[in-house]
Design goal:
Layout: H1 2-5, H2 12-24, H3 47-59, H4 65-72, H5 76-86, E1 89-92, E2 95-98, H6 103-118
Antiparallel strand pairs: 1-2
Length: 119
């Protein structure tokens, strides 16, 4: 199998271990789900990654997802999820733009409108 699939296939030792486990137990009662791993790495969409991605976008609105992924050290798919779903940005004319106006933006627009009305 290693000649066909390379290093990605399971070792003979692991397969033999699974066979031994399944033969000893009742197949209907065997749990095939992964057990919790104690030292599992943190998910890529935690607050630290979100803040890094948001800072990079605010510093350079034309930054690419690949550049963010390389800088932060997470996958492009995770970056896309953070940027579009969590942070609420979208790409307009090769720039990242927030989908909704923030409170600061609304206040700034209100100030500009009142100044224009006074003129």
């Amino acid at each position: 199998m290693k000649t066909v699939y390379g290093e990605m296939c399971s070792s003979d030792c692991a397969v033999r271990k699974w066979v031994r486990i399944f033969k000893e137990e009742n197949p209907r009662e065997t749990i095939l789900r992964d057990q919790k791993i104690l030292d599992r790495p943190l998910p890529a969409s935690d607050t630290a990654h979100r803040e890094k991605v948001d800072c990079m976008i605010r510093a350079n609105r034309r930054v690419k997802q690949k550049e963010i992924a390389d800088e932060v050290g997470i996958s492009k798919e995770r970056v896309h999820h953070i940027v579009t779903t969590v942070l609420g940005y979208r790409k307009v004319s090769a720039r990242w733009v927030p989908r909704q106006l923030t409170v600061e933006m609304k206040a700034q627009r209100n100030d500009m409108c009142t100044q224009l009305l006074e003129r």
